[in-house]
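Example 9 (inverse folding). The structure is encoded as follows.
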């Protein structure tokens, strides 16, 4: 009588699931593992659950602040950690991930964005940063020149995906004790201020006064008629000129927070409903091959909650 055929060979383990499991095991968190691996948290969760089904046992106890390893996870980690580490060491000769190409307003990038991304550089993330105006940058994003763009308006159409990043609030400022030509400070009453201050020297980002005109419509409900005394296409330079006494201007609060705190600049008006503008984080909707793109995006969204 012939011997019975051997049972079918078990399906080999999925290395991606094992790598994901080991990252969760070592970091104690699904969120941290997703960030380290450049994956979405839902992908990490799905891979660990698939591994649990394969082994027929739970590997982690899900907790509010992380994932606690169960005995089955300890056993699995003891078996796979060394082989996976050796495999990772053997693959280290592979080229590093491509740089993430990020673009946006120079002032926002220099003041808030780059400091928020600085910790990622130590973990191997490389950045290539460009500055400019929103419309040209969005066109360059569509053409593939950039990976992420911080835009001062939501892009239209389906070629790009965008999510709100942060709201920037605007404030009407001048240097302390800044006088009018007659030697008197600008009036404090809003109606009088709206009438008097356009006659005084204005420092603006551009000749058409886009920020200042928007502030006037929102706060005073009227159009602004006036010409700038100084134009400079960098809000940091506008801030410096105003602090030096060249005139008045409207600036985003994040850019002059320190000067307002120290008294180097003073608000000329504190309306109950100051104007705001929403900045958006835009990217192309197709999946990106560079895992660091997701890492940079998640870091920016997390950091912007505190801006």
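The amino acid assigned to each position is listed next.
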């Amino acid at each position: 009588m012939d011997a019975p055929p051997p049972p079918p060979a078990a399906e080999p383990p999925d290395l991606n699931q094992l790598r994901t499991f080991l990252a969760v095991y070592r970091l104690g968190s699904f969120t941290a593992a997703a960030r380290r691996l450049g994956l979405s948290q839902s992908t990490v969760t799905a891979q660990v659950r698939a591994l649990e089904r394969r082994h027929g046992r739970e590997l982690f106890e899900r907790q509010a602040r992380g994932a606690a390893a169960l005995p089955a996870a300890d056993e699995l980690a003891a078996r796979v950690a060394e082989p996976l580490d050796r495999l990772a060491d053997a693959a280290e000769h592979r080229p590093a991930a491509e740089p993430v190409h990020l673009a946006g307003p120079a002032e926002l990038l220099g003041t808030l964005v780059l400091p928020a991304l600085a910790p990622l550089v130590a973990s191997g993330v490389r950045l290539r940063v460009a500055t400019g105006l929103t419309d040209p940058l969005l066109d360059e994003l569509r053409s593939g020149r950039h990976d992420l763009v911080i835009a001062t308006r939501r892009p239209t159409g389906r070629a790009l995906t965008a999510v709100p990043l942060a709201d920037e609030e605007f404030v009407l400022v001048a240097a302390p004790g800044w006088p009018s030509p007659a030697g008197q400070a600008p009036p404090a009453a809003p109606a009088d201020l709206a009438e008097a201050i356009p006659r005084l020297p204005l420092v603006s980002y551009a000749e058409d006064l886009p920020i200042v005109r928007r502030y006037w419509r929102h706060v005073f409900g009227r159009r602004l008629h006036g010409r700038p005394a100084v134009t400079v296409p960098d809000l940091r330079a506008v801030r410096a000129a105003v602090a030096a006494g060249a005139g008045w201007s409207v600036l985003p609060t994040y850019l002059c927070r320190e000067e307002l705190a120290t008294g180097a600049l003073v608000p000329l008006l504190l309306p109950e409903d100051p104007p705001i503008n929403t900045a958006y984080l835009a990217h192309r909707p197709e999946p990106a091959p560079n895992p660091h793109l997701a890492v940079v995006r998640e870091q920016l969204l997390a950091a912007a909650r505190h801006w």
